[in-house]
Amino acid sequence: MSDGVRASAGKGRMWAIGLAAVALASCGSPNAASRHSDFAVRDVSVVIHSDAPFTRATDFPGRVESTLEAALEYWGGNWDALAGRSITFESAQTVECGSHSGAFGCFDGDIRLTTRDPAFTFSCVEQTVLVHEVGHAVIGDASHRDRRWMDFHALTSRLDGRRGYSVQGDETCQLFPSVWQHPPDL
Ligand SMILES: [Zn+2]
């Protein structure tokens, strides 16, 4: 079952061997494992390689959809910007992104992001860098020149205070715009 694959692929995996570990954990049916999706939101496939409690909550698909909706609105885009793309949630601390191996999130046509902050596991999808990566899907701007990369106030007030999940139980999902922000690259 996919739940077993997800759990074993997620636990204790180091970022440096992230992709190799996924391939090994999934061996036996490499083709199916390389692109299986756990659910779809509109035309977006969502893949869970994480055991973060929020990814197992029954409201997760709806929360992904409403977060994407808000992010698309913030960036002035619509669902066409995400059609046919995938979003993968990883429990590893960082994801590989081109030549950059220490990223919390990546958009390279598809979106990959970690479900962990360096200090703790995120308690909700809204806390991840998803809304940042949606920005790249809508406006590109790899060098972060647009002033909206340092703003996000409208999104914060719209998404803050929803239900969060931890292994200890439910909590409030407090948002930190600094997780989403990025100063212009030099
Ligand atoms: Zn970025």
Task: Please tell me about this protein's structure.
It is a single chain. The protein has one domain (37-180). It is built from 8 helices and 9 strands. A hairpin with a 2-residue loop joins strand 1 (39-41) and strand 2 (44-49). The radius of gyration is 16 Å and the shape is globular. The chain has a 5-stranded mixed β-sheet with strand order 1-2-3-7-6. Strands 4-5 form a two-stranded antiparallel ribbon. With 186 residues, the protein is of the alpha/beta class. It binds zinc ion. Zinc ion binds next to helix 6.
- Which structural category do the helix and sheet elements fall into? alpha/beta
Helix tally equals 8
* Main β sheet profile: 5 strands, mixed
Give the N-terminus to C-terminus distance in angstroms. 46 Å
The structural domain count equals 1
- The amount of beta strand, in percent, is 15-25%
- The value of Rg in angstroms is 16 Å
Number of strands: 9
Bound compounds, each kind once, are:
zinc ion
Order of helices and strands: HHHEEHHEEEEEHHEEH
Shape: globular
The helix content, as a percent range, equals: 25-40%
The side-by-side strand order for the widest beta sheet comes to: 1-2-3-7-6
Query: For the residues shown, what is the average pLDDT?
Result: 84
Low-confidence stretches: 1-34
Describe the structure in brief.
The protein has helices spanning 2-10, 18-25, 30-34, 53-56, 60-74, 130-139, 153-159, 177-180, and strands at residues 39-41, 44-49, 86-90, 95-97, 100-103, 105-107, 111-114, 162-166, 169-173. The chain is α/β, with parallel strands linked by helices.
